Amino acid sequence: MPVRRLPVRPDLTQLRHQARDLLRAVRAREPAALELFREWNPDVTPEGARLADAQHTLARSYGAPNWTRVVQCCELIDAIWDDDADTVRRIVSAHPQLLHENAGIGNRNWGPPLSYAANLGRDGIIRLLHGLGARDLEFAIDRAILQSRVGTAALLYEMMGRPAPPDDAFGGAAYTLSVPGTEFLFGLGARVRFEDGHQSAPVETAIGSDSRNPEAKRRILALYAEHGYEYPDTPIMAFHRGRFDLLEAHLRKDPGLIGRRFAIDEIFPTEVGCRHTRHECMGTPVDGGTLLHLAVYWDELDMAEWLLARGADVNAGTALEPDGFGGHTPLFNAVVSQAGFWMNYTKGWTRRPEDARFAELLLDHGADPNARASIRMRLGSGHGDPRLREFPDVTPLAWARRFGGDTLPGSKHSEALFVNHAAVRVLEARGGRG
How does pLDDT run across 210-229, given as a tens digit for each residue? Predict the structure, then answer.
């Protein structure tokens, strides 16, 4: 059984409730609870289990050696969020090994306490922890940059002795689409083009990011260009850069561009380092889609409006595979999407407000709410259950409902997170079935 991850800011009260629920479940001999005890606390029998046993089992399942470590984790993280330097000092002074362990135990993304503080811009706590012996400055500055905490990044840069930025410095800022972080790195002298003529920028990371912020993506790609990066002159790169002028020029040369279907290696251009497999997606696949599919997938409303004004067909389906899979219209992308994920995901993040802008726009332009297609897809690495799945003969509503309910037991995330429930309600109100 894989180790589970605590959320970015674990709630000790909630974890105590989880332990009590686990105790009740194991005493009732529920299969999942029995399996958890067999894996992490095998010497305890259901009839002999106590609350301390359930707490220990739960702690082990989260990668902690014991329940005490979970309590320390929650109290330390709360103190960092609250900018409570006295509590941080008390906990770390009593348990100095915590300086070098991940604050979130099995959740390694935010790093040890100093790096965790860098994510939040807690400069006073950073100075305190550094004085107590924390040395994870390099990881911490990367976290500050990708979180757009440029003041904190500047502090860490001075603590590090003002080193030259590494050649791969831009990756974190590209993933989170941090314009301030990217600008900060250029200010330190980071480069995307080198003396020998080769260029290196994480264009593929900005394009493949699970963030949905078109303005930031375009600005980061523009910053790379301003500092010497040269892009291939293709319609897809014009799309990703938000260069409507270049798209217009491509359209003049190729009037059929609006309706053209693009292969996955074009959508995620190999020329700039992208490596994307067929059927891989965040939500609804885009392989074989038109530019309008891409606009919905990347949450680019202005691009969708521009394409519709130039005659894009809202009912054009993606390219069909030999066995008939494919053919879904952009409306399918509007109901299951990465943008929908951010409307539903709340673990340590501010939930994005619900909206159904794309569903409404497409329906207003004549999209068929009951179009049918057969979808073959897999979620990308790190975004959920990666198995190849097939959903034959579904409408947009049926696609949302079937995919949203297709979660394996024990999965890190529920597929329902990708469902845009506001779009579902709009489809229901406008005649959608499924």
Answer: 999 999 999 999 999 999 99
> What spatial distance separates the first Cα and last Cα of the chain, rounded to whole Å?
36
What does the alpha-carbon distance between residue 125 and residue 199 come to, in Å, rounded to a whole number? 38
Residue 249 tokens, joined: 């020029």
Closest CA to 174 of 139, 136, 224, 140: 224
Cα dihedral 412, 414, 418, 423 in deg (nearest 10):
-160
> Whole-model pTM?
0.91
Smallest CA-to-CA distance from 67 within 45, 82, 50 is with: 50
Q: Single out the residue of 291, 298, 400 nearest to residue 339, CA to CA.
A: 298
* Model confidence pLDDT, tens digit, residues 17-56: 999 999 999 999 999 999 999 999 999 999 999 999 999 9
Residue position matching structure tokens 């900018």: 83
Domains of the chain by start residue, with CATH: 12-133 (no CATH), 285-429 (1.25.40.20)
**Alpha-carbon gap, residue 120 to 133, rounded angstroms:** 20
Query: How is residue 189 written in tokens?
Result: 């002298």
Identify the CA nearest to 55 among candidates 70, 33, 42, 43: 70
Tell me the two tokens of residue 325.
Answer: 């899979």
Q: Which residue has the higher pLDDT, 255 or 193?
A: 255
One-letter identity of residue 309: A
- Measured from the Cβ of residue 294, the count of other Cβ atoms closer than 10 Å reads 21
Dihedral-angle region of residue 311 (phi above 0 means left; psi in -120 to 50 means alpha; beta otherwise): left
DSSP class of residue 275?
-
